[in-house]
Amino acid sequence: MRALQFSEYGSADVLHVAEVPEPHAGPGRIRIAVRASGVTPADWKVRSGAFQQMIPLPLPHTPGIDAAGVVDEVGEGVTGVAVGDEVFGMADLAAMGGANADHVVLALWAPKPSTLTWEQAGGAAGNTETSVRTLALLGVRAGDVLLIDGAAGGVGSMAVQFAVAAGATVVGTAGPANHEFLTGLGAIPVAYGPGLADRVSALVPKVDAVLDCAGSGSLPELVKLAGGPERVVTIADLSAAEPEVLRSRTGGPGAGPQAVAEFKASVELFEQGRVTVPVAAVFPLSEAADAHRLSETGHLRGKIVLTP
Predict the structure, then answer these.
(1) What is the DSSP pairing of strand 232-234 with strand 209-212?
(2) Closest alpha carbon to 153 in 116, 127, 191, 184
(3) SS3 content of the chain, % helix, strand, coil (to 5)
């Protein structure tokens, strides 16, 4: 099968499509024929070598965590899914490699929502799991005011919708060009940068929780706005450390039963049309290097997706 790979760390130029052996579904796993898969900022940061001390990888490596497709293998012990089912989910990165390939083994999955295209579903799983998990960490509920720093990106745009669906008021930071986009998702837009606290205070009387999706060095101000580090989660600032701020730990395939149940329950919100997946751009697998370059520019509206 074909898979996107890099054999050395570096720029997007190190990416290439290679012929590799097909993975197979082991116990507790399923395999899909991929219709679409996602590109995240973490993918190009890993490819660049930025995390090689923290996350050493055997090379060559196939990136990608999100995928959607048709089940073609079901592993031992798996129930509730059959060959031919349409699903979306997260790759079993530790055991089988990444999702940017013709076939991928999934460790976490749910039925593909009928309201999503293949491209939307292919970019949905990681951002859905991260949004649901971080909002649960923050205990966001109806009536709360949630500030999301970096609200127009892949995770931010999904977290806005899940928080609004939960009954929270959401204030989201973004550049002026993305303010109308955030309003359409149900958030109150605000400009990022110095003086954020004053601008937020002029919009809402309080901030109950903060989700940092930007990693722009604004954590001290975000903690002050929230009233304490226990009310802040960052998924983007690698300098954050306990007890300075509560960090979002790795979830996804390694998450516990509650997180898995919450992920699968999210499908209902997609089916109801209360949450959708903004897609910033779609590239064929053969042009994945261009997808990585676009991701590196930042300031995107939603998810970048690859198709076979």
Answers:
(1) parallel
(2) 127
(3) 35, 25, 40
Q: Where in the chain is the domain with CATH 3.40.50.720?
A: 128-247
* 172-182 pLDDT, tens digit each: 999 999 999 99
Rounded Cα gap, residues 141 and 68, in angstroms: 30
Alpha helices in 202-256 (DSSP H): 219-226
Q: Cα dist. 156→30, 134, 145, 279, 302 in Å?
A: 29, 11, 15, 13, 8
Q: Report pLDDT digits (tens) over 32-66.
A: 999 999 999 889 999 999 888 877 889 999 999 99
**pLDDT per residue over 130-171, tens digit each?**
899 899 889 999 999 999 999 998 899 999 999 999 999 999
Fold that domain 2-124+277-307 belongs to in CATH: Quinone Oxidoreductase; Chain A, domain 1 (3.90.180)
Distance CA 47, CA 5 (A): 9
State the Rg of the chain over Cα.
19
Q: Which CATH superfamily is domain 128-247 in?
A: NAD(P)-binding Rossmann-like Domain (3.40.50.720)
- Its pTM stands at 0.89
- For CATH 3.90.180.10, the residue range(s) in the chain are 2-124+277-307
